Amino acid sequence: MDTNPSQGYGAPASQSSNDAPTIFQKFDSYPWARDRSFLQGLMATLGPSLASPNDGFVRQKALSTTLQARIWWYKSRFNSDIDRSAYEAYSASHASSCPDGAILATLEEIQQRMGAGNASASSSAGPPVPAWQLNAPKVDLSKKAEDATGHANSDGGAPYPENFQALIEAVTMGKPIPGIREIPDTVVRPPGVTPFGKMKAPRKPWEKDLPADAAAQASIFGDVVDKEFPPLP
């Protein structure tokens, strides 16, 4: 029967400098490597830092992040404040009891197991397939062969739709295009229609002294404008 890893590791909210070593011992002895919720949150926080265990700067940063995460987790679980400066001074002389290195080793082991599981699920040939691609739904994006039956063009390229194939055939062979009306290019003039309307335009203010009869109007245009439409050829 599993027991709660947080039992027996709490500390009061108020602490004095005299009992600080005892508080730090309880803080270090908490089973961090067995607290699944803490490990999951820390792994998400560290991210790519776990992939470079041999980089000294990255490793030191990961240890600092782990300590800060432990202080925050301990405060949220047990309402106990851990003075980071005092703890770092304490851990300098008690390096063997500091669990930060062991926690990172546990996370690295978990990450290696996860990577091995993804690698076994992927194909042995070619580069490794990302996990999101392995879990993506499989959709058939290829066009079925029977869908293109009767629509292939003469060049063996992409198939044409039926209506487009008929249009191409009509244009190339000079046949009438389906759905196109043939309109003759002739103009029909109704009888009684002349270039000049029957109604007279109203006079402009400066045209009051000009003659208004048809003869006067005809004299203005002269022979420039035809009085009747010329016959069609």
Essential attributes:
233 residues; mainly alpha; HTH_76
Layout of helices and strands:
Layout: H1 20-29, H2 36-46, H3 56-78, H4 84-93, H5 100-121, H6 131-134, H7 162-173, H8 214-221
Domain PEX14-like helix-turn-helix: 23-94
Domain Peroxisomal membrane protein PEX14-like KPWE: 159-208
Pfam family, one: KPWE_dom
What amount of the residues lies in strands?
A: under 5%
Question: What shape does the CA trace take?
Answer: elongated
Helix content: 40-55%
Low-confidence stretches: 121-125, 148-152
Please state the structural category: mainly alpha
H/E topology pattern: HHHHHHHH
Number of strands: 0
Cα-atom Rg, whole angstroms? 47 Å
Q: What kind of assembly state do the chains in view correspond to?
A: single chain
- What's the story with the biggest beta sheet? none
The CA-CA distance between the termini, in Å, is 111 Å
Give me the number of helical elements.
8
How would you state the average pLDDT, rounded? Answer: 73
Description:
It is built from 8 helices and no strands. By secondary structure, it is mostly helical. The chain has a domain of 101 residues. The longest helix is centred in the first third of the chain and has 23 residues. The termini are far apart. About 4% of the residues have low confidence.
Describe what is shown at a glance.
The chain has 233 residues and is mostly helical. It contains eight helices and no strands. It has a domain at 21-121.
